Each structure stands twice: as structure tokens, then as C-alpha cells.
Amino acid sequence: MRLPSARGSITSVLFERLCGAPGAPFPVVGVAGGLDDDDLQLALFACYELHYQGFDEVDDRWEWDPALLRFRAGLERWFEEALRAAVPCPQPVPPREVREALFTLTSSAEGPSVAAYLQRDADLPTFREFVVHRSIYHLKEADPHTWAIPRLSGGPKAALVEIQADEYGGGRHERMHAELFRATMRGLGLDDSYGAYLHRVPGITLALSNVMSLFGLHRRLRGALLGHLAAIEMTSSLPSRRCATGLRRLGADEDTARFYDEHVQADAVHEQIAAHDMCGGFAAAHPELTCDILYGAACVLELERRWAEHVLGCWRRGTGSLIEERVPA
């Protein structure tokens, strides 16, 4: 993956430095904007990506460069403040009630349904657009949540490993969920290479991935990461069924729909493991972090709501929800 074009002053400074040797100082850059700010979210995404697959033209030594880490910390402070302003911390509950609180939170989530639109109304170009958005996370599916494994112990650790083992295909490359999603992309005539569409997705799409990396890379936020994963598992089975139905309505073959078929079954099982064994067990061991679990779940629900409002608003206005391709001068 190559660095995309800068989208403002923050990414301009960041990308210029990353193309040079590690050790270069960073100027002070002002931070402003909301959770959907393109410049800020792309900058944070690029900083996090150095802990994943990285960029072709960026020296791997940047990953732990002190100046870059200070720069990223400033972006993270803004991001956490914006999240706290948008997502109030849920009321605390006793550890034994965490599972029920998660089910209440996820079942009462409000907002438009992208999956329902894809099932009934979307044409093929619109479905491709949706898949481009989702490729930012699904091509690294499970990786952000795997950061929690060494930070857990006992039953919660075993529960997370059980979920992640399924995400990684039970040790079979062709069954890894990221590989199944690549098949969906190929079936829709899209480029299935990692990060191929980073330059096309807006800030709110990047925020969905950034919040996972934020929670995953900080041990203090491990409770939020578990709640985040639980909310994903508890809310994806029905949307996956709708997406599979929508793809078949549009004439897609079995290989193209398999990613969503897999999630209909897997996530129905995972939601019980995630809510009871993983989050419930973690809350029992760390009752002081119960609020963090619920907060992580609330964050993914709020960001998904904002993302759905963006894409559906664009589609219903007859416009695209992606950033237009830049034509070289």
C-alpha cells in the first residue's frame, strides 16, 4: 500500500515526514474538526497503519519513532475527546449484568439500515461502493481486536481466542474472513489488494477503523476493545443475511456472497461467546472496567450510525458516498 494524497495541513506534514528518514521533528499542528474530519482521520489512520502492514515508501523504523508517537498522541487526544463528546459513558452496572446491558444497548441502537437498503434497493454500483467502504476494515479483519489477547487471562482470553480463530479461518488461509472478503471484491470487479481504496474513503469510514486501533493499541482501553468486538458480533448476523440476499438479487455467485453467508452463522455463535464468556468474564475479574466495556460498544454503535447516515444520505440524493478520484494535473 502506498501513501494516499494528503487531505489537509496535518496529513501534508505527516506524509512529508514519513517519506524521509526517521528522526525528523514534527511541527506543532493545530487539531480541529469533528469525528468525520478527513484530514485528521487519515492522519491517524496512517499512524496506526505503521503497526499493521505499513506503506511501501515508509521506513519501518517510523513505527516506534518518538517524534511520530508524540505527534500521534496529539491526534489521539483529540479523537478521544471527540468520542467522549459524542458518546456519553453508559451508566455502570454490576459485572453479572454486563451481558444483559450489552444486549439492551445493541438491541436499542437507532439509525438507518444500510443493509436493508442493499437487500432491497441498491444497484450493483451502489453495492460496490459499500464494499469499498468496508474493505478498509475487512481486509485486516480481526487484527485490531487481536491486540487484546496478550492483555487478557483465563476465561476471557480463551473466549477471545475462540472468536479470533474463526476469524482467521481456523488456520486455513482460504477460510480467513479477510480472504473471503477478497473473493467478494473480485466477484464485484474490484481491486482486492490491501488498502487499494484508502484514497477514496471519507473520514467517517476511517474513524470506524481508527477507534478499533485506538482501543487495541492501549492497554488501558482493553475493556472498551472487548465491548467494541462484542457489539460488532451482536449486530452483524442479520445485516450479513441482508447483504447476502442483496448480492444474490443482483446476480452474484456463491463465492461472492460467501463472506456474508459465513457471518450469518459465525456471528450468531460469536455473540454469545463475546457477551457472556469474554465480556462477562472480564467484568467479573475487573469490575472497575465495566463501564469501559459498555462504552466501547456504544462507540461502535454511534460511529456506525453516523457512517450509515452519510452513505444513505448520499445514495438517496443520487450522489456517491466516496471521495472522487483525483485526476493528475
Structural commentary:
There is one protein chain. The chain folds into two domains: 9-86, no CATH class; 95-316, Heme oxygenase-like (Heme Oxygenase, Chain A), CATH 1.20.910.10. Helix content is 62%, strand content 0%. It is built from 14 helices and no strands.
Supply the CATH superfamily name of the largest domain. Answer: Heme oxygenase-like
Estimate nothing, just give the exact number of structural domains: 2
Point out poorly predicted stretches. none
What does the overall shape look like?
Answer: globular
The top-level CATH class of the largest domain is Mainly Alpha
Mean pLDDT over all positions: 95
Report the CATH architecture of the largest domain: Up-down Bundle
Radius of gyration, CA atoms, in whole angstroms: 19 Å
- Classify the fold: give the CATH topology of the largest domain: Heme Oxygenase, Chain A
State the share of residues found in helices, binned by percent.
55-70%
C-alpha termini separation: 22 Å
Keywords:
0% strand, globular, 14 helices, 329 residues, mainly alpha, 2 domains, Heme Oxygenase, Chain A
Short description:
By secondary structure, this protein is an all-alpha fold. It contains 14 helices and no strands.
Compile the SSE list and pairings.
Layout: H1 9-18, H2 38-49, H3 66-86, H4 98-107, H5 114-120, H6 124-138, H7 143-146, H8 154-167, H9 177-187, H10 203-217, H11 222-235, H12 237-249, H13 254-285, H14 290-316
Helix pairs in contact: 1-2, 2-3, 2-10, 4-11, 4-13, 4-14, 5-12, 6-9, 6-10, 8-13, 9-13, 10-14, 11-13, 11-14, 12-13
